[in-house]
């Protein structure tokens, strides 16, 4: 049985966070070159070994094909493209369905946001031309999650949007592995302690979206922001940590296994997340149930892997399950790595007031309201991305 969640700050256990800049075994201090060439790789490997699982080095071949396009989408504001990424490997084939909106008025390749959606491309906007792949009689209603994707606002600010249904990569349930991309890889032994789970495969898919951005002359692949909400925020962080081609990384309410410090055991814990979602992480992560202090890393070190690229972390005041303070502290404790690399991080351990964003290279806000990604959140991300583009 999972223990009752802790929502009282006075009950957070005493803990010591691992130092992302701890001296090397020979006692030498980590320099900027030492971070880039050695320490960063060590920390990334620790997350692969103990939390998310190892992303296979060899993957399926990917071919992109545009199956539908229109130059008068959103009342003429945007170009819409619907793209199939056909994956072939290990004698099997899978298809990822990308939905792309690009500002119609542009002088050249544009920056973009990319992120996974929860219930299908057709949910992000009521546009009747958005395809629903296959005979999905139970597909979520068209436009039902449009409030999570303010498409017109994104396009009006000069950004493209590229999205993909997470279930194309790994249907989000414990038996989803076989229906996703896992069988395309030569060796996929789920019993291996560091076998990757759903979050690892979702992150891998985000990198394939970035591959598409590099292949589309209308998109600037050097200016792609990866964004995710909740469990897909965890995937966005892991994608950004592994793939340094992402120019900007955004975590929205990502909580345990995302931005929040695991050792705090506030709200959702490692045990709770592994029991509720046993398919998300690698098997070894389950051995840390109620043993967070034994982890060789914590989530501030995941955020540090984004450095020196811009990073934005967002929380919600009523979302105690995701531990807003733990998310903020994680960004704060990633600051020493940003400073080592010549950038200012978060300057105060005290959280900012609600609805008052802070930060420059590391951005943060806690907004009023529940666990969700809202127009307010997107307004901050658009402002932050515009500042750094």
Structure description:
The chain is built from 9 helices and 9 strands. A 9-stranded mixed beta sheet has the order 1-2-3-5-4-6-7-8-9, sandwiched between helices. α3 crosses α4.
Compact description:
By secondary structure, the chain is an alpha/beta fold. It has helices at 32-52, 151-156, 198-215, 231-242, 270-276, 299-304, 324-333, 335-340, 375-388, and strands at 61-73, 78-89, 92-103, 110-117, 160-165, 219-229, 248-252, 311-316, 362-367.
β-strand amount: 15-25%
| Distance N to C terminus | 47 Å
**Low-confidence segments, ≥5 residues, pLDDT <50?**
none
Coarse morphology:
globular
Radius of gyration: 20 Å
CATH homologous superfamily designation: Alpha/Beta hydrolase fold, catalytic domain
Classification by helices and strands: alpha/beta
Topology as a string of helices (H) and strands (E): HEEEEHEHEHEHHEHHEH
Please give the CATH architecture.
Answer: 3-Layer(aba) Sandwich
Compute the number of strand runs: 9
Tell me, what is the CATH class? Answer: Alpha Beta
**Largest beta-sheet characterization:** 9 strands, mixed
**What's the arrangement of strands in the largest beta sheet?**
1-2-3-5-4-6-7-8-9
**Distinct helical segment count:** 9
Amount of helix: 25-40%
CATH fold naming: Rossmann fold
Mean pLDDT: 96
Number of domains: 1
């Amino acid at each position: 049985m999972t223990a009752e969640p802790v929502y009282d700050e006075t009950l957070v256990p005493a803990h010591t966070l691992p130092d992302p800049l701890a001296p090397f075994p020979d006692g030498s201090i980590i320099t900027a070159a030492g971070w880039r060439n050695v320490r960063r790789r060590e920390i990334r490997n620790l997350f692969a070994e103990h939390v998310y699982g190892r992303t296979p080095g060899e993957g399926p071949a990917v071919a992109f094909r545009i199956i539908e396009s229109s130059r008068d989408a959103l009342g003429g504001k945007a170009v819409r493209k619907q793209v199939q990424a056909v994956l072939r490997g290990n004698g099997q084939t899978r298809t990822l369905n990308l939905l792309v909106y690009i500002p119609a008025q542009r002088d050249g390749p544009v920056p973009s946001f990319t992120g996974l959606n929860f219930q299908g491309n057709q949910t992000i906007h009521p546009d009747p031309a958005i395809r629903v792949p296959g005979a999905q009689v139970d597909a979520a209603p068209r436009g039902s999650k449009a409030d999570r994707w303010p498409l017109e606002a994104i396009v009006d600010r000069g950004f493209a949007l590229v999205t993909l249904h997470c279930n194309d990569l790994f249907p989000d349930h414990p038996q989803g592995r076989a229906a996703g991309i896992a069988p395309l890889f030569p060796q996929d032994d789920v019993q291996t302690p560091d076998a990757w789970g759903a979050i690892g495969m979702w992150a891998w898919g985000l990198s394939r979206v970035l591959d598409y951005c590099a292949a589309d002359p209308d998109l600037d692949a050097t200016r792609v922001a990866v964004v995710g909400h909740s469990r897909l925020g965890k995937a966005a962080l892991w994608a950004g940590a592994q793939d340094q081609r992402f120019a900007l990384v955004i975590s929205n309410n990502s909580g345990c296994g995302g931005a929040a410090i695991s050792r705090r055991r506030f709200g959702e814990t490692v045990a709770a997340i592994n029991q509720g979602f046993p398919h998300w992480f690698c098997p070894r992560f389950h051995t840390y149930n109620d043993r967070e202090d034994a982890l060789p890393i914590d989530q501030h070190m995941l955020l540090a892997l984004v450095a020196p690229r811009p990073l934005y972390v967002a929380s919600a005041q009523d979302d105690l399950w995701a531990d807003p303070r733990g998310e903020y502290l994680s960004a704060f404790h990633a600051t020493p790595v940003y400073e080592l690399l010549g950038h200012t991080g978060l300057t105060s351990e005290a959280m900012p007031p609600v609805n008052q964003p802070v930060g420059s290279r590391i951005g943060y806000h806690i907004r009023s309201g529940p666990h969700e990604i809202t127009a307010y959140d997107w307004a901050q991300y658009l402002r932050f991305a515009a500042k750094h583009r």
